[in-house]
Write a structure and sequence with these properties.
heterodimer; A: mainly alpha; Arc Repressor Mutant, subunit A; about 0% strand; elongated; B: mainly alpha; 2 domains
Chain lengths: ~200, ~110
């Protein structure tokens, strides 16, 4: 595809439309605002250079996120000594290795149920920083699956294209990512009055 | 189903089956028939219904908490980049045009 004035306008429109999502994903990858901006700018530059090779414009969003992801990996491979460098594969340490932890099951217990709806109350009391801290603590590949699907609303197929992996890999990363996230949220559940007794009860098991 | 109609294309599923598909269902990744089966199960099962409502609420909470807005500094930076691309694109397009008007192309020298 030749780059024309029309395709330039298309590119600009798409990038502007995706800017918040790109930045959000970059911020969650780098966990640093300045680096997130640099990452997005570099990825957009690379995307423009590669734009002629994009055959199906309807796949622009996953294609752009694929470039963002690859740019991130390249940047961090260059400085392996950096403390920010972390592994980029499915073996990342996660608190819940089988992906089966369920916050609901912890909260939905008979000795809590008689005084209301502890699950709903728990969700209402979760703080923004609790959630972001828990997401930031996830290994990178699981973090990105959760961000693309739960935060940015990608379909599994789109996320698979963005990550360059099969749909089933997305599904399993998402499962583990969510389980780890829920486990992390459960850990500071004690700070939220509603689950104090549940945390104590669970720790006795 | 709340309207009482019977749908013969779908089968009754149990809790284990409904929960196996829980996240695909929440993520809008199940086929219409499976969606209907799960929906019917949830209509009659308080326990699974509560689980689905919880996961839905948690997902919405995570989404709200983790979304970011690009700062103005990034917007400005990308605007500059994109304008630069446009200029480069126009220059490339001019280069591709047949050079019929002699004297307009600074690289033209032979002849």
């Amino acid at each position: 595809m030749e780059v024309t004035a029309d395709s330039g306008a298309f590119f600009a429109g798409q990038v502007r439309g995706a800017m918040d999502s790109l930045y959000g994903a970059a911020l969650k990858l780098t966990r640093n605002a300045g680096e997130a901006e640099d990452l997005v700018a570099e990825a957009v530059g690379r995307a423009w250079s590669a734009f002629q090779s994009l055959e199906d414009r309807s796949r622009f969003r996953p294609w752009l996120f694929r470039i963002l992801t690859n740019t991130y990996i390249d940047r961090y491979r260059k400085r392996r000594d950096s403390p920010a460098m972390e592994s980029w594969d499915d073996s990342g340490a996660c608190d819940d290795d089988d992906g089966n932890f369920s916050l609901f099951e912890r909260l939905h217990q008979p000795f809590l149920l008689w005084w209301g709806n502890p699950e709903q109350e728990y969700v209402n009391k979760l703080l923004r920083e609790d959630i972001n801290r828990a997401i930031d603590a996830l290994p990178a590949v699981f973090r990105l699956a959760v961000i693309l699907i739960d935060v940015e609303g990608f379909a599994y197929r789109e996320a698979a294209e963005a990550l360059g992996v099969p749909v089933n890999t997305v599904r399993s990363r998402l499962k583990r990512g969510r389980a780890c996230l829920q486990k992390a949220l459960w850990k500071h559940a004690g700070d939220i009055g509603v689950t104090k007794s549940a945390t104590e009860g669970a720790s006795l098991r | 189903m709340t309207d009482g109609k019977k749908n013969h294309d779908t089968r009754a599923i149990d809790c284990a089956e409904a929960m196996r598909q829980l996240f695909d269902y929440l993520d809008g990744e199940v086929e219409a028939a499976a969606h209907e089966e799960i929906h019917r199960h949830l209509d009659g099962c308080r326990s699974c219904f509560s689980r689905v409502e919880f996961e839905k609420a948690l997902k919405a909470r995570v989404r709200k908490a983790a979304r970011s807005r690009a700062p103005d500094s990034l917007k400005d930076r990308l605007d500059v980049l994109i304008r630069g691309f446009a200029v480069a694109g126009e220059a490339a397009a001019r280069d591709r045009e047949p050079k019929t008007r002699a004297g307009k192309d600074p690289r033209k020298s032979r002849g």
